[in-house]
Amino acid sequence: MNPLRLGVLASGRGSNLQAIMDAIQNGELDASIQVVVSDRADAFALERARQQGIPAFYIDPKSFPTKIDYDLAVAAALEERDVELVVLAGYMRLVSSEFLARFHLKMVNIHPALLPAFPGLEAQRQAWEYGVKFSGCTVHFVDEGMDTGPVIAQAVVPVYDTDTAETLAERILEQEHRLYPATLQLIAEGRVEVVGRRVMVR
Ligand code: GRF
Question: How far is ligand 1, taken at its centre, from the CA of residue 88, in Å?
Answer without folding.
Answer: 9
